[in-house]
Design brief:
The structure holds three protein chains of three kinds. Chain A has one helix and nine strands, in the order E-E-E-E-H-E-E-E-E-E. Chain A is mainly beta. Chain A has one domain: Ubiquitin-like (UB roll). In chain B, strands 11, 12, 13, 14, 15, 16, 17 and 18 form an eight-stranded mixed sheet that branches. In chain B, strands 5-2-1-9-22 form a five-stranded parallel sheet, with helices on one face. By secondary structure, chain B is α/β, with parallel strands linked by helices. The chains are: A mainly beta, B alpha/beta, C mainly alpha. Chains in contact: A-B, A-C, B-C. Chains B and C meet through strand 6, helix 8 and strand 20 of B and helix 3 of C. Chain C: It comes from Brevibacillus parabrevis.
Chain lengths: ~110, ~400, ~90
């Protein structure tokens, strides 16, 4: 069930917005114009946006205003894009980053 | 080339742009957020007189006024460097480079974190993140959650979450640690809450707070703080409960808590698990001064203002030629103070350009900053005025070197 | 989780325990602590943890914050591509 706040007791009802479709990790989601990637995914119940590049620990938004870079995703092939600061556009293709090899780290190993 | 470049389209930046544009300067604002308004956008609270402060509406008003005056606003643009180039400032951004002789840095504040074991799990976010998600993105952050960190901001935002149909189970303290500062100490939190108790809708809390002027009464209040918490706006605030750990496999599933002593130490045998699908962490705010630093601006360390603030005088001018600051970057206060500071900065820049026809506008604007501060319903910190004095003195001393 | 295992630098996953023991052992400045542990060197540019690092240094060595910012800022303060540096807009 969508977690969108269509009706707010003080802010009023959300005005009509154009619906957009985008992909995250291969699955199709709906967003509304003006929503960020992070907002649209959260509305669909998706919290995990990437994994830590070394430990693989799941990460999602933390600050939501572009300071912490926890929400960084790949958008249409471009890496390190903040999901919380990027408005969804029609047909956008978003993917989460994965664990990266650390062949030079002491005790680490190439994957 | 623009007369004035402004970094930050929040209440300070927009107000400065309006003031400068009114005096005939050409102004360009860049902001990395996707729409103008800064942190004003998410603000939504009821003032004591019953009127709602609606940040979205205030931001729209400022944005409209700025655009009507010809101010150029570029959103979604990040500034990554500032350098001096002859007698001008050059800002490097993700959409190109711009130069001007007058530069205003109005980048606001960042949130200071209070780490809690498990805080990197998806579903844990800063309290400001929850405000933006709720009031700007209009998305609920979860079904049921816990707010860790009790202060003016967290209580106000918990109320905003509640308004939007998000259940806030409890507001509790963070665990005591080397990095929790005062946040984990019930006595400290009680003291800071009492400063805003006059805003409480409940007459019981308002009356009770009037009686608690003395330290020993405050200690009594903490000692006998109800175990079920005190309900303010129907939210349980627990000064004697702290989070131990946020748990979950791939995202937040709950928070382990314990009752704590009046000093904040966990009491053995009192552990509980609160199921939750989101957690908000509320530390405090701190000036986001990185751009002022790389521009070479000197700083003052003033805890009452939130940390390191760029030196500036009452004209919002830093010791560096043509460089101004306004808003939360100068110290953490309200959006209204930010707006009035922005107006001063805009008029100062007009004066520096020889375009300010009426100097009394500037002195009136400076008085307005003081007036707004005095009339504030919430005093963010008791030592703000003294802090600002210190910054002014240090700025004067720096310039006199 | 042992409370000291709490992560301080989220970007580099550096724990409180590692920072405290390193700061205590070397009685170092915030800058040296950053160089030894990588805390503050991650993608966010230290924005999230710089104040925490300073608090830990204060706890471990007694060094209190001065008017000079202890962890210097270096441009670029946002991660940018070579393309952007080369003058092409992203």
């Amino acid at each position: 069930m969508s977690q969108r706040i269509f009706h707010h007791p003080v802010l009023g009802s959300m005005e009509e917005r154009t619906a957009l479709q985008f992909q995250f990790n291969g699955a199709v989601y709906t967003a509304y114009e003006g929503e960020t990637i992070a907002g649209a995914l959260l509305a669909a119940g998706v919290r995990t946006l990437r994994v830590h590049e070394e430990t693989g620990a799941p990460r999602g938004i933390y600050c939501n205003i572009g300071h912490c870079y926890e929400c960084r995703v790949h958008v249409d092939g471009i890496p390190t894009v903040r999901a919380c600061m990027t408005l969804v556009t029609e047909g956008m293709c978003v993917t989460a980053g994965s664990v990266l090899p650390t062949p030079l780290k002491k005790g680490g190993h190439a994957k | 080339m623009n007369d004035v470049l402004v970094i930050g389209a929040g209440p300070a930046g927009l107000s400065a742009a309006i003031a400068a544009a009114r005096q005939g300067l050409s102004v360009k604002i860049v902001d990395e957020f996707y729409r103008p308004g800064g942190r004003l956008l998410g603000q939504l609270h009821e003032e004591p007189d019953g009127v709602w402060w609606n940040g979205l509406a205030e931001a729209a008003r400022l944005d409209q006024e700025a655009r009507a005056l010809g101010v150029n606003i570029s959103c979604g643009v990040s500034v990554y460097d500032i350098a001096r180039c002859d007698d001008r400032w050059r800002i490097s951004t993700t959409e190109g480079e711009w130069e001007s002789s007058l530069l205003l840095i109005a980048t606001g504040a960042s949130e200071a974190a209070v780490p809690v074991p498990g805080w990197t799990l998806p579903g844990v976010m800063s309290i400001g993140a929850a405000q933006v998600m709720t009031n700007v993105q209009r998305v609920r952050v979860g079904k049921k959650g816990v707010v860790i960190g009790v202060n003016i901001l967290s209580v106000a935002i918990a109320r905003e979450l509640q308004l939007a149909g998000v259940h806030v189970e409890q507001l509790i303290l963070p665990p005591l640690s080397e990095v929790s500062g005062k946040a984990g100490r019930p006595h400290e939190i009680m003291r800071s809450l009492l400063r805003v108790a006059h805003l409480a809708p409940s007459p019981v809390i308002r009356l009770g707070s009037k009686l608690m002027g003395s330290a020993w009464m405050q200690r009594l209040a903490v000692a006998f703080f109800p175990s079920k918490g005190v309900r303010m706006w129907d939210m349980p605030i627990h000064l004697r409960t702290a989070a131990l750990e946020i748990v979950g496999t791939s995202q937040v599933e709950g928070v382990r808590t314990a009752r704590v002593t009046p000093e904040g130490l966990p009491i053995p045998g009192t552990e509980q698990l609160i199921p939750a699908d989101f957690v908000c962490i509320a530390g405090g705010l701190s000036p986001l001064a990185e751009l002022a630093a790389i521009a070479g601006c000197p700083f003052a360390y003033v805890p009452a203002l939130g940390g390191h603030v760029p030196l500036h005088d009452e004209y919002m001018k830093t010791p560096l030629p043509g460089l101004y600051v306004a808003g939360n970057i100068t110290g953490i206060e309200s959006a209204k103070v930010a707006m009035s500071q922005g107006t001063v900065a805009g008029l100062s820049m007009a004066q520096a350009s020889g375009l300010l026809a009426d100097d009394s506008l500037l002195s009136q604007a400076q008085l307005q900053v003081k007036r707004v501060r005095q009339n504030a319903t919430i005093q963010f910190h008791p030592d703000i005025a003294a802090g600002r004095e210190l910054v002014g003195q240090m700025a004067a001393a720096w310039t006199a070197r | 989780m042992d409370a000291q295992q709490v992560i301080i630098c989220r970007c580099e996953e550096v724990s409180l325990e590692e920072l405290l023991s390193t700061a205590r052992e070397y009685q170092c400045t915030a800058r040296e602590l950053k160089l030894r542990t990588r805390a503050g060197m991650g993608c966010c540019g230290g924005r999230t943890c710089r104040i925490l690092i300073e608090q830990i240094v204060e706890q471990a060595t007694g060094q209190v914050p001065t008017h000079t910012v202890s962890l210097g800022y270096q441009p670029p303060v946002r991660p940018i591509s070579f393309q952007t540096l080369g003058g092409k807009s992203s």
